[in-house]
Design goal:
The chain is an all-alpha fold. Helices cover about 70% and strands about 0% of the residues. The protein is built from 27 helices and no strands. The longest helix is centred in the first third of the chain and has 20 residues, at about 5-20. It is elongated, with a radius of gyration of 27 Å. About 50% of the residues are buried.
C-alpha cells in the first residue's frame, strides 16, 4: 500500500476511534487508534502527519487509561511528550500522572508532577524547608487579602482557556499523589496551585487546592480564621460549578479535613452522604463515600472491581465495621482472590509507599483495639500511626484518635503506669478544650467533657468527676452522638467500679450496652455485656442511667 493511502486510511481510523469513544466503547477506540499508528510506521511525526499522530496517540492513551491498561497508556502519552514542546504536552503529562495514580504509585506520580511544575517555572525547591513553606503560605495570604470571597470565585472571565485548564488538571492530579504519598511538597504544591489560580483564573480544578490550603492553615499555622476563609471560598467555587469527579474529590477534602472544625459532625456526615449519592448517580466510583451499612459496602465494592486502589480504602473500613457489628461479609470475595485480606492491602501499601493507606489501616485497627479495651495493642498501633509523616496533618479520624488516646492515657495513669500518662492525657484535654471553644456547633463538647471527667477521676476529685461524667453523657445524648454516649457511660462505669460503687457501675455498663446496640455495634455491645457479667445482675437501674438510655430521641450513628 502506498504511503499516501496509508496516511488516508490512518485518518479514517482516527475518525472511527473518535466515534467509538463518544459511544464509550473505549476498547474499539483504542484498537482503531493503534491500527492508525501502525499504518504510519514510516511517516510518524512528520509535517504531513504531525496533527494526526498527536490525535491518534492521545486517543490511544485516553482509551487505554479508561480500560485500565495503565502502562500502555503511559507509553503512548510519553511518545507525545517526546515529540511535542513542553507547553503543548500538558494533556499528555496529565495522562502520565493519572496512570501512576491508577496504579497506586503515588511517589512516582508526585515526582513526575514536580518535574511538570518546574517545567512550568513554578518555584519548587529541591528540598522543602518549614520556613520556605510558611513564607509561601504567607505570600498567598497577602495576595488573597486583596479579594473578597465572592471576587475570588469570579476570577475568571471569557471562554475557557484550554492551556490553563490542562495546567490545572495536572496540578489537581499532582495534589492527589502528594497527599496519598504524604509528600513534604504537598503544602508547596497547594500554594502553587492557589497562586496560579489567583493570577490566571479560578476554575473548578482549583477547588481541591483551595480546600487543602484551608487544611494547612490549621495544620501548620493554627490559623482557624483564615482556614474558614479558604473553606468558604472553596464552597463558593463548588456551588457555582457543575458536578464531576474533580469536584466530588474537592468536596470530600473540604468536608473531611476542614469544614468539620466549623460545622456539626451531623452536617459533615450528611454532606459526605450527599457526595456519595451524587458520585454513585454519575458512576464516579472513585469519589463514592463509604456507606454506613455493610451490605451497602458490598454493593459499592461490586462497582469498584475495576478500581482496585480505591476499593482497598473501602475494604479497610469494611474490616472495622465487621468487627464492631460481629458480621462477616463477602466484601473480599468480590475481588476473586486479587485482594484477599487486609494484611495484603497493608503489605501492598508498604511496597508502593502509600503512606495514607498505611495510616488508615493502623488507625482503624487502633479504633478497634480501643473499643474492645485492648489498650496495650491500641497504644502500639497509635505509636505506629504517629511515626508516619502523614500523621502531623489533621484529619477527621486523627482527631478521633487523639480523643481515644487521651482516654487511654488517663486510664493507664490510674492503673499506675507512670506520671507521663497523666501528662499525655492533659495534653489531649487541652486540645479538645480549644476545639470545644472554637466550635459553634458543640461537635466537641461531649468529648471535651469526657476527657475533663477522666482528668478529675485521675486527680481523685470524685464529686467533680461524677458531675462531669454525667454532663458528658447528657451532651452526647442531647446532640445525638449515640456512640459517644455509650463510651461516656462505659468510662463512667469503669470509674464507679474503681471507687467500689458497684451497683451504679453496673447500671452504667447496662446503659453503654443499650447505646452500642442502638448504634449497631452488636459485637461491641456483647463484649460489654459479657466482660461486666451483666446477665447475672439485678434488673434495677439508677434514675440517672434510666433517664439517659431510654430517651435517645435523636439518635445518629457513625
Amino acid at each position: 500500500m502506498e504511503r499516501s493511502q496509508r496516511i488516508r486510511f490512518a485518518g479514517w481510523n482516527m475518525v472511527a476511534a473518535s466515534q467509538f469513544a463518544k459511544r464509550f466503547n473505549f476498547g474499539a477506540s483504542a484498537h482503531y487508534c493503534k491500527k492508525g499508528i501502525d499504518l504510519l510506521y514510516d511517516s510518524l511525526w512528520c509535517n504531513e502527519t504531525f496533527d494526526l499522530c498527536r490525535a491518534l496517540h492521545e486517543g490511544a492513551a485516553s482509551a487505554l487509561l479508561f480500560l485500565g491498561d495503565f502502562s500502555d497508556a503511559r507509553q503512548y502519552a510519553n511518545v507525545i511528550i517526546d515529540n511535542l514542546p513542553f507547553a503543548d504536552s500538558l494533556a499528555a503529562q496529565n495522562m502520565v500522572l493519572r496512570s501512576w495514580e491508577r496504579m497506586g504509585k503515588y511517589e512516582e506520580q508526585t515526582n513526575s508532577g514536580l518535574a511538570v511544575l518546574r517545567g512550568l517555572n513554578f518555584d519548587i525547591p529541591l528540598e522543602p524547608s518549614p520556613s520556605f513553606i510558611m513564607d509561601a503560605m504567607a505570600h498567598i495570604s497577602n495576595i488573597a487579602s486583596k479579594y473578597s470571597i465572592e471576587q475570588i470565585a469570579k476570577l475568571r472571565s471569557g471562554k475557557v482557556d484550554t492551556r490553563k485548564k490542562n495546567i490545572l488538571l495536572s496540578l489537581d492530579s499532582i495534589t492527589v499523589g502528594a497527599y496519598r504519598s504524604s509528600s513534604p511538597f504537598l503544602p508547596l504544591i497547594t500554594c502553587a496551585v492557589v497562586n496560579y489560580s489567583l493570577q490566571n483564573g479560578v476554575y473548578e480544578e482549583s477547588a481541591l487546592s483551595f480546600a487543602c490550603l484551608g487544611y494547612f492553615k490549621i495544620a501548620l499555622a493554627g490559623d482557624y480564621k483564615e482556614a474558614r476563609y479558604w473553606a468558604n471560598a472553596t464552597s463558593l467555587i463548588l456551588n457555582t460549578s457543575g458536578t464531576n469527579s474533580i469536584l466530588n474529590r474537592a468536596n470530600i477534602v473540604l468536608h473531611s479535613f476542614v469544614q468539620h472544625f466549623f460545622v456539626s459532625t451531623q452536617e459533615t456526615i450528611f454532606s459526605l452522604l450527599s457526595i456519595n449519592k451524587t458520585a454513585a448517580a454519575m458512576g464516579d466510583v472513585e469519589s463514592e463515600n463509604l456507606a454506613l451499612l455493610l451490605n451497602s459496602f458490598c454493593e459499592l465494592l461490586r462497582t469498584m472491581k475495576r478500581y482496585k486502589e480505591v476499593a482497598k480504602l473501602a475494604l479497610i473500613d469494611v474490616v472495622m465495621i465487621e468487627t464492631l457489628i460481629g458480621t462477616k461479609s463477602n466484601a473480599f470475595d468480590v475481588f476473586e482472590g486479587t485482594i484477599p485480606t487486609e494484611d495484603f492491602i497493608l503489605a501492598d501499601a508498604k511496597a508502593t509507599q502509600n503512606i495514607v493507606s498505611i495510616e488508615l489501616i493502623h488507625t482503624r485497627r487502633f479504633f478497634t483495639a480501643f473499643w474492645f479495651g485492648d489498650y496495650q495493642k491500641a497504644n502500639e498501633l497509635y505509636d505506629v500511626v504517629i511515626s508516619l509523616p502523614s500523621h502531623k496533618l489533621p484529619k477527621l479520624w486523627s482527631i478521633t484518635s487523639q480523643y481515644y488516646r487521651g482516654i487511654i492515657a488517663f486510664h493507664l495513669y490510674r492503673e499506675g503506669e507512670g506520671e507521663e500518662w497523666f501528662d499525655e492525657g492533659k495534653k489531649m484535654l487541652q486540645k479538645f478544650e480549644h476545639l470545644a471553644k472554637l466550635s459553634s456547633t458543640n461537635s466537641f463538647q461531649s468529648k471535651f467533657l469526657l476527657l475533663q471527667a477522666e482528668s478529675y477521676a485521675s486527680s481523685c476529685e470524685i464529686i467533680n468527676a461524677k458531675m462531669v461524667f454525667e454532663a458528658s453523657i447528657k451532651s452526647a445524648r442531647d446532640h445525638g452522638y449515640i456512640n459517644d454516649q455509650g463510651l461516656a457511660f462505659e468510662c463512667y462505669g469503669k470509674f464507679l467500679a474503681s471507687i467500689v460503687d458497684n451497683n451504679a457501675a453496673l447500671n452504667c455498663f447496662k446503659s453503654a450496652h443499650v447505646c452500642y446496640s442502638q448504634w449497631g455495634a452488636l459485637a461491641l455491645a456483647e463484649h460489654v455485656w459479657n466482660k461486666n457479667k451483666l446477665s447475672t445482675c439485678n434488673e434495677g437501674s439508677s434514675p440517672f442511667c434510666a433517664s439517659f438510655h431510654t430517651s435517645n430521641k435523636h439518635v445518629r450513628s457513625w
